[in-house]
Amino acid sequence: MTDQNPPEGLVSVPHLLARNVQLYGNKPAYREKEFGIWQSWTWAETADEVEALALGLLDLGVNVGDHVAVIGRNRPALYWSMVAVQSVGAVPVPLYQDAVVEEMTYVLENCGARFAIAGDQEQVDKIIEAQETVHGIDHVIYYDTRGMRKYDHSEITSFTDIQNEGRAAKARLSKELNTRRDALGYDDTCVMLYTSGTTGRPKGVVLSNRNVIETSKNSSEFDHLSAGEETLAYLPMAWVGDFIFSIGQAYWSAFCVNCPESAETMNADLREIGPTYFFAPPAIFEGHLTQVMIRMEDASRFKRWMFSYFMEHAKTVGPRLLDGKPVGFKDRMLHRIGKYMVYGPLKNRLGMSRVRVGYTAGEAIGPELFDFYRSLGINLKQLYGQTEATVFITQQPDGEVRSDTVGVPSPGVELKIADNGEVFYRSPGTFVEYYQNPESTASTKDPEGWVATGDAGFIEETSGHLRIIDRIKDVSKMADGSMFAPKYIENKLKFYPNILEAVVFGASRDRCTAFINIDLTAVGNWAERNNIAYSSYQELSQHPQVLDTVLAHVNAVNESVSQDEMLAACQIHRFLVLHKELDADDGEMTRTRKVRRAVIAEKFNDLIDALYDGSDTIYTETEVTYEDGRKGKIKATLDIRDATVIAKTQVAA
Amino acid sequence: MLYREAGDFKTTYVADNQTFPLKLDRIGFWVTMAVAWLVIPFVINDYWASSLLVPFLIYAIAAIGLNILTGYCGQVSLGTGGFMAVGAYACYKLMTSFPDVNIMIHIVLAGGITAMVGAAFGLPSLRIKGFYLAVATLAAQFFLVWLFNKVSWFYNYSASGQISAPERLVAGVAVTGPSTPAWAQYLICLFFVTVCAIIARNLTRGTLGRSWMAIRDMDIAAEIIGVNPLKAKLTAFAVSSFFVGIAGALFFAVYLGAVEVGEAFGIQKSFLVLFMIIIGGLGSIFGSFAGAAFLVLLPVALKWIGVDVMGWPTDLVAHFQLVIVGALIMFFLIKEPHGLAQLWRLAKEKLRLWPFPH
Amino acid sequence: MNEAVMDKNAPYVTEDGRQIGGVMMDLRDITLRFGGVEAIKAISFDIREGEIRAIIGPNGAGKSSMLNVISGFYKPQEGEVYFRGQKRPPMKPYQVARQGVARTFQNIALFQGMSVLDNVMTGRMGHIKSNMLAQAIWAGKAQREENENREAVERIIDFLEIQAIRKTPVGRLPYGLKKRVELARALAAEPDLLLLDEPMAGMNVEEKEDMSRFILDVNDEFGTTIALIEHDMGVVMDLSDRVVVMDYGRKIGDGTPDEVRNNQEVIDAYLGVAHD
Amino acid sequence: MSADFLYGIEVVINGLMAGVLYALVALGFVLIYKASGIFNYAQGVMALFSALTLAGIMSGQVPFAHLINAIFGTDIHYFGWNVPVLAAIILTLIVMVIFAWCVQRFVFRHLVGQEPIILFMATIGLAYFLEGVGDLMWGSDIKTLNVGLPQGGSRFVEDATAGLGGDDFFGFFIDKLDMVATVVAIILVAGLIAFSQYTKQGRAMRAVADDHQAALSVGISLNFIWVLVWSLAGLVALVAGIMWGAKSGVQFSLSLIALKALPVLMLGGFTSIPGAIVGGLIIGVGEKLFEYLIGAPYLGGATENWFAYVLALLFLVFRPQGLFGERIIERV
């Protein structure tokens, strides 16, 4: 553990808040689109909202070290809640708002939260339901009063009431509050975040003030984040990324966090705000791109021509310009025109005109996708990180951006690659421990503080950039002993807009096979244009033409995989298109949309067998969970297709 | 394509319902104002003033007026000419009876008087709807014209039956009478246009405007949800006539200088202004300007093409003008009932969505 | 007799926690004729503070006419309307509206030429005090009032979850949303009595569920008294505290859903009525 | 009987005759309005146009002569022949039918289902258009139209009635033309009513007027009906045009006179043929009497210009649906 002292006595988020009030008192700290306009709060206003709540919490009897669950969509009030909780020496535990009751029950129980701050009635209901099994919760605070009137308010209170009580009790409690705030230490717990573990139950990752503040400081300096930045907070508050972007860095650099009005106005709000610092997982960028392409399909011939022409040109010139490499005069001029005709307007529509620093992470991002945004002139970069590292492990410096690497070690981070190819790191951001789980803590973090990422990768000698192949546990051997890296293949497949998800099997088998999920937006739109009628996802997924298209993609992937001798064996011999979308509610994916390979393999074993026993159709029944929690069965007969495999060239590895 | 909206967000309601929510439009507006106020006055000459700019500005005011009544409140009026006449004669009487009072005040008062007359003729609108009312307003048209013809008190018993504007000064410069400089004519009209447009905009985007539009779109429902139809319709008639009256006053005092009611404010005038708002766009201030500009420009352009270029006799060109105007009216009603304003709106929408089609 | 009157007005609380107060609107022997036709024949019933009151009956039973009488659009030839204990003098519909009676319409009556926001804003007509001159200058009082109204309206928009379509012209909206916007417009008036004329006509199950939820929420959040006409028996039985049944302009039943359901005359009237 | 009174009677009679003409034009409106819901402002201009055409054809004028000359620098004006009245009238009728077809085909077919007020404004546009075309075809100079109708006061009536009053009364002065006009108008009105009552097309017309959908469902072609009514309106316009043209020359003001039919309709109601007739008579008599008793002596005359409108306006305020129009029951 590196032993730096806190920069000028800023040992905790509340301290940062206090500093921001002094330096940027009248600058906006939070905005939320509500009642048709962007309601704004300056740092000063934020401070006393937080203080009022903190006092209220004291009044409510929150003790130092208590865990306070925070659940709801991104709203300033909930961010204040976290800071307020910290101010009174307690620990905020943000939870995923879309978690179903069981998940929430587990987490509440695990962290033993005494208090919960919920966004609205929906969340309150879940907490109440959870309390049938967990009895730790003393008091629930809700923000949106809608529909809450009829609840028994003995153990439930509205956010504003708490604040009012707090304000009322100021004289009485402010002294206590100050002492608690001053008592906060650099190595005290800042926040506890639950990792949506790809396997097994989520674990509570304990992050200290040191972790958060050091990381925020370093990463902010790395990208020269200033008080002028605008961000849009729309990713789950329970996710470490949002905590660092919307609280850590936001408080360190004192920039403004904007919260959208609602899920369906998200894109419009993004457009209005035009963030300068923007993070999104590849899925979102992919969604945008798909939308762009679909909408361009309906455009006039001229526009389509213009679009493709300039996008082509941008692919060659755009990234070079971004990286400050020299560009010929003619190209420069063409790019100007393009900027005026296409790039500019497009960025404007996407709400990314002002993006100065954009990041994506979590999944490998397709080169086409990545280049599309880069060539528009959006400074989109990749970073590699995880909750245990307080996000940052490696990130790409301006001017050294590529789609196939995840960049150089972030400031203060040391890397080492184990013999089996696993990536280890050590940094000021390295987490303290897994809450009440010493053994997994030990298994992940050795005494010197080296943390295993669980990813296999290597460092390019030429550039010093880190390249990730796959999850280490997913990289395995096939029957003939050759390397099997499913994720690698899956990503290649997923780079096709038509393919939403793919799961490749082949560990200790003689050949590879795959499940495919088609992308309903893209394929559905294609079906519409070729007026192919379909009543359900299932029906569309089994449509012969769809299967042909997918087959073409698979063949293409095989083609490219066959080039790489290390992975040539991973070519897909047979595949089928799943009759349902892989879904977190069915436990097939994590909340962050990572496939749970084991779960799937077990759940669809009949299909896997079919893939290997050579039959060309298979009948199956699958249990599904509907949005309202009801369960049901869907039955389907799936076609299985054979893909063309390029014969493995004779090589000695 | 031209628009960059990212980052142009609103944090107050005032900002949110400003007239030009888009930055580019705001810029465009101020540029236009600057040119209109700071450039044109110095370059304008008699020809441009008398054949284009001044009539355009005056008709724009009239069109705004009629648009409030017809476009916003849905009450079609064919009496515009008559009401302009009221404005003109009111102004004339005021000018001649109180020579020392500033002409500007006279013009505004003329508007006020017209407003009252307008409201009076608006009363039937409470019982009569649609084209019944339209025809009813013809009564105003014919009656008023006849009145100013027959009752010689209105034209101070002049032998010719004409009224002619004596010279009046504003800030030491003649704005009426034969010796008025072009730029003075232009500026005084521009002043009134600006004020009228702003007032109209404020009224139409506010409560009153909403009550008008409610009446227009569905009068019964409007009344049931709490719109007072009497108030809505009468205010519409009054405000509309106020503007029309001012236009009439300017038309007589500043533009023509001397008028004979029959030909200056005949039913043709009513139709001209009605056409302006149909072509320009019902229910749109911008449309009022567009329509006025279009119908002021059209004859000039036709004359130029027909007479100067093709060398045709003027009457022939005049006939063509009738045909074209008539055809245009039908065309717009069929293809684009919301006129040039709507075309403009669509174009803008396209630019905002660029490169997407929708 | 006296007792009867007393408990008639005695406040009580429904099982789902709804506060029912005294009589708000009392209709006495209302008779309405069009030319020779009697649309409503000597009907009397009352609507109590805070309750959800349903008016049901086959097509042409005179339900809508009844609503039109309440909202002052039709003037009954006989009978009186008592509002808050006062006999209502003959008044124009907009005056009734300003007394705190808002309504929606059977076939949507939105203002096609205006945006959702403007439509809902028209609901605030009753709350305008500033005069024309102030509005013309668009400053001071008028401006303040405009903003206050906007805020009030935005809360309704938020409440009915139509933020996403705030600035869309109503013409472009699908049917279900139009209905919701109309409800928003009525709510914007902050009425004491809300009249809903077939709020769920032509909706699919999902939309009906939403609408029912909104109606209950309105009654719950704002304590608004609601009188609604509806054909969907299920909905009526779920929502309403008391039901009036009309047939051919006569009242053939009045009471709690259960009482009405078991009323023989009602059953007869409904036999063979297609839509129910 | 006193002379004044008798002169009063004379005024009334003249009024009645004028009224018949108003009624005639009004009929044109009613026909179109009933069948298509269009309130045809252009009716007046149609009268003007038809009169122009008739005059032009009779005098063997070359259509669009000005235009042709202007373009080709030629100098043609007349074919140099005169077309006999009857042939000319028939030709004019053909022109009017073609016109009717064009109007239907190019304008109103595209406006089906629009609000009445839009249709109304469209007809105003049509009026302009037609006026322009008329001028282009035949030039805008005032033409005399003589279809051989008797002119001047009727000696016969004058002599016959001279005896009624004292020696300062010289009998009714009644224009022969007006008498003819009246007769023709009455015949035409009767004819139209007969047409709409007893002919297949007539019944179809009424069916359409009552209920478009129903009419369609029984296989009546709306298009045909609309062309038909526009043609009939053309015919009516022609007759009116001839009368007025013969009376006061063919000029623009003619279209304004025809406008008088509007107030007539507002009195009579847009949908009722008898209404149109009665309204016409009321207006005719009303304005003449008003002018005779009040206008000329006290108001400086020329009150005919507005009397009709103001009368109609006042009337409407108390009975919005007109004399015979059905009562409107508003619903929501």
Give keywords.
heterotetramer, A: 653 residues, alpha/beta, Rossmann fold, five-stranded mixed sheet, D: 332 residues, mainly alpha, 0% strand
Roughly how many Å apart are the termini of chain A? 40 Å
Quaternary structure of the protein: heterotetramer
- The CATH topology of the largest domain in chain A corresponds to Rossmann fold
Q: Helical proportion of chain D?
A: over 70%
Largest inter-chain contact set: B-D, 51 and 51 residues
Strand and helix order of chain D: HHHHHHHHHHHHHH
The CATH homologous superfamily of the largest domain in chain A is termed ANL, N-terminal domain
What coarse outline of chain A follows from CA principal-axis ratios?
globular
Describe the global form of chain D: globular
Kindly give the count of domains of chain A.
3
Number of helices of chain A: 21
The tally of structural domains of chain D comes to: 1
* Uncertain ranges of chain A: none
Q: How many beta strands in the DSSP annotation of chain A?
A: 28
Portion in beta strands of chain D: under 5%
Beta content of chain A: 15-25%
Description:
The complex is a heterotetramer of chains A (653), B (358), C (276) and D (332). Helix content of chain A is 40%, strand content 22%. Chain A has 653 residues and is of the alpha/beta class. Chain A folds into 3 domains: 22-184 and 229-275, Rossmann fold (3-Layer(aba) Sandwich), CATH 3.40.50; 282-471, Rossmann fold, CATH 3.40.50; 476-642, ANL, C-terminal domain (GMP Synthetase, Chain A, domain 3, 2-Layer Sandwich), CATH 3.30.300.30. In chain A, the strands form 7 sheets. A 5-stranded parallel sheet of chain A has the order 4-3-5-6-7, with helices on both faces. A 5-stranded mixed sheet of chain A has the order 12-13-14-15-16. Chain A has a 5-stranded mixed sheet with strand order 24-25-26-28-27, with helices on both faces. Chain C is of the alpha/beta class and 276 residues long. Chain D has one domain (3-318). In chain D, helix 8 (200-210) packs across helix 10 (222-248).
Topology:
The complex is a heterotetramer of chains A (about 650), B (about 350), C (about 280) and D (about 325).
Chain A: H1 13-24, E1 28-34, E2 37-42, H2 43-60, E3 67-71, H3 76-87, E4 91-95, H4 101-111, E5 115-118, H5 121-131, E6 139-142, E7 156-158, H6 159-168, H7 170-183, E8 189-195, E9 203-208, H8 209-222, E10 230-232, H9 240-253, E11 256-259, H10 266-273, E12 277-279, H11 282-297, H12 301-322, H13 329-350, E13 357-360, H14 367-375, E14 380-386, E15 391-395, E16 408-409, E17 414-417, E18 422-426, E19 433-434, H15 438-444, E20 451-459, E21 466-471, E22 476-477, E23 483-484, H16 486-494, E24 499-505, E25 512-518, H17 520-529, H18 537-541, H19 544-563, E26 572-577, H20 597-603, H21 605-613, E27 617-625, E28 631-642
Parallel strand pairs in A: 1-11, 3-4, 3-5, 5-6, 6-7, 10-11, 12-13, 13-14, 25-26
Antiparallel strand pairs in A: 1-2, 8-9, 9-19, 14-15, 15-16, 17-18, 18-20, 20-21, 22-23, 24-25, 26-28, 27-28
Chain B: H1 13-16, H2 23-43, H3 46-72, H4 80-97, H5 103-122, H6 130-150, E1 163-164, E2 169-170, E3 173-174, H7 182-205, H8 207-224, H9 229-256, E4 258-259, H10 261-264, H11 267-280, H12 285-310, H13 314-335, H14 339-353
Antiparallel strand pairs in B: 1-4, 2-3
Helix pairs in contact in B: 2-7, 3-7, 3-8, 3-9, 3-11, 3-12, 4-5, 4-6, 4-9, 5-9, 7-8, 7-9, 8-9, 11-12, 12-13, 12-14
Chain C: H1 2-9, E1 12-13, E2 19-20, E3 23-34, E4 37-48, E5 52-56, H2 63-70, E6 78-83, E7 86-87, H3 93-98, E8 101-103, H4 116-122, H5 132-137, H6 140-159, H7 175-188, E9 193-197, H8 205-222, E10 225-229, H9 233-239, E11 242-247, E12 250-255, H10 257-261, H11 264-270
Parallel strand pairs in C: 5-10, 5-11, 8-9, 9-10
Antiparallel strand pairs in C: 1-2, 3-4, 3-6, 6-7, 11-12
Helix pairs in contact in C: 4-7, 6-7
